[in-house]
Amino acid sequence: MCSHYEAPAPHRVAETFDVEPFKQGKLELYPGYIGPFIRRVEHVDAESPAPVEALSGSFGLIPTWSKDTKIARSTYNCRSETASQKPSFRAAWRKAQHCIIPAAAIYEPDWRSGKSIATRITRADDELLGIAGLWEQWRDPGTGKILHSYTMLTINADDHPFMRDYHKPQDEKRMVVILPKGLYGDWLKAPAGDSMEFMRPYPADRMAVAM
User: Fold this and answer.
1) Whole-prediction pTM value?
2) 82: which residues sit within 8 A by CB, 6+ positions away?
3) What distance in Å separates the CA atoms of residue 102 and residue 104, rounded to the nearest whole number?
4) Which of 62, 100, 121, 200 could cysteine-pair with 138, CB 3.0–4.6 Å?
């Protein structure tokens, strides 16, 4: 599970996803912080190539029924196996509100020494990580302002040659869903019925520990 990741510099996001440049605050992101996500522009013909846009939102999905933003502290990751049933995620999953969260690196705890060591993980080729996620739009009941938010989808990683080394030994191993670049467009326009087809482990030899 990923509760800390490094957002890329805005120009890298703009170049990778062919979107307009945008302003980004903090690059070290934790639940509740504001970061970028990529989504398909709405109201586009499903049969045509969809333009995409970069938006800023809360790292941690805030469902429409939430009274405040505190829930983001526990909704930053979503188990893909139960996304369609969990109250916080099921609406976004049902409506196929797919997004991609760009990351320069993610951080996971390595417990092999007996204590937690935060480890910076990147793609081996140093390209951006494109993490599959869900997005939502929430209206503040007090001010009426709109806040976007997102969550990272995860899968089991007990048998993954790379990610099985992270988290506590007795815990189930999980990993975020890192999309191959060639599937970015397909994921963003996929209907809900096809969502699970994208929930696949990223190849271990394409991941690396980086300083």
Assistant:
1) 0.94
2) none
3) 7
4) 62
Q: How many residues does the chain have?
A: 211
Which is it for strands 5-6 and 105-110: parallel, antiparallel or unpaired? antiparallel
d(CA 32, CA 72): 5
Tokens 């089991």 map to which residue? Answer: 156
Of 150, 33, 54, 29, the C-alpha closest to 93 is 150
The structure tokens listed for 59 are 């790292």
Backbone angles phi, psi at 100, to 5 degrees: -125, 130
Which helix (H) or strand (E) segment holds residue 92: the answer is helix 90-94
Phi first, then psi: what are they for 62, rounded to 5°?
Answer: -110, 105
Q: CATH number of the domain at 5-209, please?
A: 3.90.1680.10
Q: How far is Cα 165 from Cα 183, in angstroms, rounded to an integer?
A: 27
Distances (CA, A) of 28 to 15, 97, 168: 20, 25, 23
Task: Give dist(CA 122, CA 104) in Å, integer.
Answer: 7
Q: According to the model, what pLDDT value does residue 25 have?
A: 84
52-86: pLDDT as tens digits: 999 999 999 999 999 999 999 999 999 999 999 99
